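Q: Please design a sequence for this.
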């Protein structure tokens, strides 16, 4: 089981995308605020720097428009972008972490040890046993790579993320047949027959996380049986789900 509570509330990029709650997304402050709010999980976005560090940033470019992968970790840190190691070192061990891994074009041609896949595998070995992780990606090769290389007792869950308006049928089928533990669906993929989608996902052994529902839709999905909701409005969602957890 990945998510102990049904549904678990996952703080999207910390306390929410953009400036939710007054905190910049994917910042140390946003993750700590989410921890204080009482959510059991946070989600963060990881990208590689030019010198092979995993940095926490959603977009492919910095606010100045430069590609993340063209800057060193020190340069990105000076620009206010945190490193994965920095974030994990300050979060309480009780807080589980969903790492949304962003791969890049260079991952198609660089030597394997330089690719995002290998960087994530090395990071997970360093943090083995420190907390519960769900590693997910839009790139199905990333969780597949980890599945082949991580030990069965690593307490690591793997998930496939699908795009906005991606059909739930192929998404669930792909995740199940790739041997994933979870499928992460945008809410638009669950607007039609959510109960049926969730039934098939659960029968295949998958847990389902929906991103990013508003509080009202989170309740609807909870009634349908979703396992987790990755949300921008943490206080509103917790209040709305108060009677369902």
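A: Design:
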């Amino acid at each position: 089981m990945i998510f102990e509570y049904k549904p678990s509330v996952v703080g999207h990029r910390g306390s929410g995308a953009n400036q939710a709650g007054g905190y910049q997304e994917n910042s140390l402050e946003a993750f700590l605020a989410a921890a204080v709010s009482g959510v059991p999980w946070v989600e963060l976005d990881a990208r590689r720097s030019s010198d092979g560090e995993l940095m926490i940033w959603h977009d492919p470019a910095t606010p100045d428009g430069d590609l993340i992968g063209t800057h060193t970790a020190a340069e990105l840190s000076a620009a206010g972008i945190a490193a994965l190691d920095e974030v994990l070192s300050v979060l309480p061990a009780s807080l589980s972490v969903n790492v949304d891994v962003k791969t890049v074009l260079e991952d198609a041609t660089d030597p394997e040890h330089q690719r995002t896949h290998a960087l994530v595998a090395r990071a997970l070995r360093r943090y083995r046993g420190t907390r519960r992780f769900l590693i997910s990606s839009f790139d199905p090769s990333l969780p597949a790579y980890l599945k082949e290389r991580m030990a069965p007792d690593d307490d690591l869950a793997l998930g496939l993320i699908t795009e906005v308006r991606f059909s739930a049928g192929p998404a669930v089928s792909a995740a199940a047949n790739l041997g994933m533990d979870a499928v992460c669906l945008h809410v638009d993929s669950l607007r039609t027959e959510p109960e049926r989608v969730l039934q098939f996902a659960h029968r295949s052994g998958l847990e389902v996380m929906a991103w990013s529902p508003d509080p009202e839709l989170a309740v609807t999905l909870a009634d349908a049986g979703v396992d987790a909701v990755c949300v921008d409005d943490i206080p509103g969602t917790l209040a709305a789900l108060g009677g369902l957890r």
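Q: Thanks. Anything notable?
A: The longest helix spans residues 116-126. The chain has a mean pLDDT of 95.
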